[in-house]
Write a structure and sequence with these properties.
The complex is a heterodimer of chains A (about 120) and B (about 120). Chain A is an all-beta fold. Helices cover about 0% and strands about 50% of the residues of chain A. Chain B has strands spanning about 5, 10-15, 20-25, 30-40, 45-50, 55-60, 65-70, 75-80, 85-95, 95, 100, 105, 110-115. Classes of the chains: A mainly beta (about 120), B mainly beta (about 120). The interface between A and B is medium-sized, with 28 and 28 residues.
């Protein structure tokens, strides 16, 4: 079946502009996660959704970052007034249940964001 | 707070040699542990996971890992490296509180494996 898809695959934007990153999880997966991968920094957890709700927003780096999930499916990560330090690969993952239940997270290919 | 430490950001082995990638975790409650692999310009793929069943876990592509509670380790091994194993490997822990999981994974900083012919 289809895996996790993300769009766009690459995004170049000017500093100060807003961007939206989209994630389509695997059908039937209730949990959805956003991570950020920066060079030399590993993977940084941003936010996760259980259904449409996000119990833990503490990983979002600033109030310029927000995310929503509608219909228990597609999620959008929005970065307002982008800064150069936002340049990274943004990875989305989904799982049938939460990671704490031992379920595997399936990752999308990522969106490479470059802020000029 | 739970954390994951991967010793060695780069590991280089010869083809056919043993692969050993080290991972230590910090957790007051035995967690779930995962190893993921990332090939260039691709997303992460699960190699194997430990969920409190057998302490020796076998994964895909001939990899295995052993959970050692006394050493808080979950090292990844493969008896004989292949050129196709060249990739970046990430160890991850599912943080557990006494009330249950927080939902996300905490990743180590990754180990880039190079395989020499």
């Amino acid at each position: 079946g289809a895996g996790v898809s993300q769009s766009p695959s690459n995004k170049v934007t000017e500093k100060g502009k807003d961007v939206e990153l989209r994630c389509d999880p695997i059908s039937g997966h209730t949990a959805l996660y956003w991570y950020r991968q920066s060079l030399g920094q590993g993977l940084e957890f941003l936010i996760y959704f259980q259904g449409n709700s996000a119990p833990d927003k503490s990983g979002l780096p600033s109030d310029r970052f927000s995310a929503e999930r509608t219909g228990g499916s597609v999620s959008t990560l929005t970065i307002q007034r982008t800064q150069q330090e936002d340049s990274a690969v943004y990875l989305c993952a989904s799982s049938f249940r939460l990671a704490g239940a031992g379920d595997e997270q399936y990752f999308g290919p990522g969106t490479r964001l470059t802020v000029t | 707070a739970q954390s994951v430490t991967q010793l060695g950001s780069h590991v280089s082995v010869s083809e056919g040699a043993l692969v050993l990638l080290r991972c230590n975790y910090s957790s007051s409650v035995p967690p779930y542990l995962f190893w993921y692999v990332q090939y260039p310009n691709q997303g992460l793929q699960l190699l194997l996971k430990y969920t409190s069943a057998a302490t020796l876990v076998k994964g895909i592509n001939g990899f295995e890992a052993e959970f050692k509670k006394s050493e808080t380790s979950f090292h990844l091994t493969k008896p004989s490296a292949h050129m196709s194993d060249a990739a970046e490997y990430f160890c991850a822990v599912s943080p557990m509180n006494y009330g249950g999981s927080q939902g996300n994974l905490i990743f180590g900083k990754g180990t880039k494996l190079s395989v020499k012919p």
